[in-house]
Amino acid sequence: MNLISIRNEIKNRNKKIQGFTAIEEEGLLLPVTILCGKEAGKTILITGGIHNAEYVGIQAAIQLTELLKPDDITGNIIILPLVNRTGFEHRTMSCVYEDGKNINREFPGSKEGTLAERICYFMEKELFSQIDYYIDLHCGDGYEELKSYVYCQGKASEGVCQISEKMARQVDVPYIVKSQSGTGGAYNYAGTMGIPGILLERGNLGIWSEREVEADIEDVTKILRMLGFFQDKGQRKNSEAYLITEAFYQNAEKTGCWYPKYRAGDIVEKHAILGEIKDYFGNILETHVAKEKSVILYQTGSLSVLEGETVIAYGKLTD
Questions:
Q1: Beta-strand (E) ranges in 153-283?
Q2: Whole-model pTM above 0.85?
Q3: From CA 193, how far away is CA 129, in angstroms rounded?
Q4: Residue of 64, 57, 109, 65 whose CA lies nearest to 83
């Protein structure tokens, strides 16, 4: 088994390195590919599988390791296609198998914490400390119905946020959501460290297709070209995606059965009833209402909904 020190390997030139990197001594091993270009330059990190049942992003990252060639690159590209490996191998949803924690809720993590916390600590100390840009690939989890969109950073420095939005503008989706969180998620936490990044959402309900994977690959390639990682700059065209600056995430107050009134991607008016949670006798436990005229970004796509989890998320639209 080829064990890799990312810090050491990115010093190479014109080389492709593949193997595993260790979260800790004799601990979790994560697959990694490092592409070192012919010429020195910036370093970008691409991750998939922070949420382990979000298969479009995982497969896109895997195929990027096959498609990208050192001869075509300036700088370094680090690809971790499966950050939550144990969750993937045990078919959990969103959470690390050993501790039931969501990696995107645990940054900056802890060296002495549970596995999810140690993964976050590793990413901050061993990855974020080495990179200049970050792309995180996601999709709707096994229970999430989702409309394709992309997050850019909104709580980092002005310069970081500007580059983040430029990265997002390379993505072929109808909506860009400007995040108002500085710590919720790997890409947002990276932003607080001065690293421009995005989180791309495409696909849903734990299903992946070649069409969606190819769209991810095309978007990532456009971002890499825009940032100067390809020696052949090629042509670039910014998307005309609608920029959402305010998003709402409504959680279930009770466990029960979810009955949505709309689908992901639908436009809803202010005060529209978005859906109801009922008990096992058909009695309404709670009703979710739109706070503003919005587009539904994602929602629970399963009958089952759990107390405390996000049941629906939507972004405000302005006339």
A1: 175-178, 197-201, 242-244, 247-251, 256-260, 267-268, 273-278
A2: yes
A3: 9
A4: 57
- Residues 6+ away with beta carbon under 8 Å from 305: 252, 255, 256, 257, 258, 277, 311
Residue 77 dihedral angles phi and psi, to the nearest 5°: -125, 120
For residue range 260-305, list pLDDT tens digits in order. 999 999 999 999 999 999 999 999 999 999 999 999 999 999 999 9
Q: State how far the Cα of 260 lies from the Cα of 145, in Å rounded to an integer.
A: 11
Structural tokens at position 70: 């050192």
Alpha-carbon gap, residue 6 to 319, rounded angstroms: 48
Q: Which tokens belong to 123?
A: 């990413």
For residue 235, the model assigns a pLDDT of: 62
Of the two residues 133 and 237, the one the predictor is more confident about is 133
Predicted local confidence at residue 232, as pLDDT? 73
Going by the DSSP 8-state scheme, the letter that residue 4 receives in this structure is: -
Please name the helix (run of DSSP H) or strand (run of DSSP E) that holds residue 58, with its range, or none: helix 55-67
DSSP state of 128: G
Give pLDDT, residue 182.
83
82 is written with which tokens?
């499966």
- Identify the residue with better confidence: 239 or 64: 64
Report the alpha-carbon distance of residue 88 to residue 262 in Å, rounded: 30
- The neighbour count for residue 199, using CB atoms within 10 Å, is 26
